[in-house]
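YM 10:42: UDP-N-acetylmuramoylalanine--D-glutamate ligase sequence, as discussed on the call
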Amino acid sequence: MKTTLKFKHKKVLVLGLAKSGVSAASLLHKLEAFVTVNDRKPFSENPEAQGLLQQGIKVICGSHPIELLDEGFDYIVKNPGIPYDNPLVSGAVKKGIPVLTEVELAYLVSEAPFIGITGTNGKTTTTTLVYEMLDKGGKHPLIAGNIGTVASEVAQTASEENNVVIELSSFQLMGIDTFRPKISIFINLYEAHLDYHGSIDEYAKAKANITANQTEDDYLIINADQPELDQLLHFSKARKIYFSTKNHLEQGASIKDGHIFFNNEKIIDISQIALPGKHNLENILCAVIASKVSGIGNGAIQEVLKTFTGVKHRTQFVRTLNGRSFYNDSKATNVLAAKSALEAFEQPTILLAGGLDRGGSFDELIPYMTNIKALITFGETAPKFIETAAKAGIQTVKHVDNVEAAVPAAYEASEQGDVILLSPACASWDQYRTFEVRGDIFIEEVHKLK
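YM 10:58: structure's back
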């Protein structure tokens, strides 16, 4: 672990706990900062806060008292999920107090270079693919962030031989100062998280921070099929490498004659790739570029692409039973993600969909429902899905109570050669605590089928 004097004898407020807050507070304590932790959960119900108190860290629980700003903090390190209109955060910004996220701390103490991945869709799959390719190629990668161990924990044990591969949300990227990945990947940009950012422009600006501190010695991997990304990232000093799923590129990664190419070098026949879905080609091209510039050979890249079938809850293959193939795409918590999943399959499909009602309609899915032979719907949005199915001309529609009931109903409506796909197009919170819980229940019920 590198030492940094940036926080030594500085007053730092860690706002919000969860895993990242606990790790940030402990690390700052090691770096000899004067740390105060503030979390909304009451102390008596907060084992994380209790553990930090035992380390000698000041803990304030139960609310976010605005009076804390009178204590003269030099920095605030906030949980990425806490919005900037939180009175403590907005008050700190007005006072000129730097507001950071735990990713910045990780970067400051890491001896290993970072490979940072952002975008609206595909971050987790791309992050995992990059990690697997580097691992297969003997580069000793470490995976961090939302799909691994908290970044500031990973960074403390990383050496120069490692690469820290990290998925980065817009929330995290708003709280960086010096963070500089050796390789940054910007997969795509679509409208999302407007409730947090207020506008697509602010969301895009936050994402663009991934390359803010890069230099000519670094790499920026960009989607050539979205020219607006080039405009957004025009300021970047990094060496730009493009990918395209639509056009062949002489330089960069693209598709030609059913093969993936990098700089006109044939990498793999697409028919040999195990990961389903056209939308995953973007993720694959990103991972190929990151791996090639990291010095990974084609053999390691090919081996990963021939065996990697997906990240859990993201168009994840579960099993085949009596000729039916089951896929878990519980992470599809919006219409855009569900579109991608529906596009992935040409076979007749039984769709399981529904969940939290955020007020929108699902008619945008209709052009992508041509292969849907039956819809099994559940949750608050079931009535809306029934209306959409009628407009799409889907004859078989069944309304059930939950995912537990949806799986046997889908199997009953299917026949040999069909795909049975959970891709809810909705958040899970009306019935399940997280999309992971919803997906795990789907997997469990699929394995119960005889």
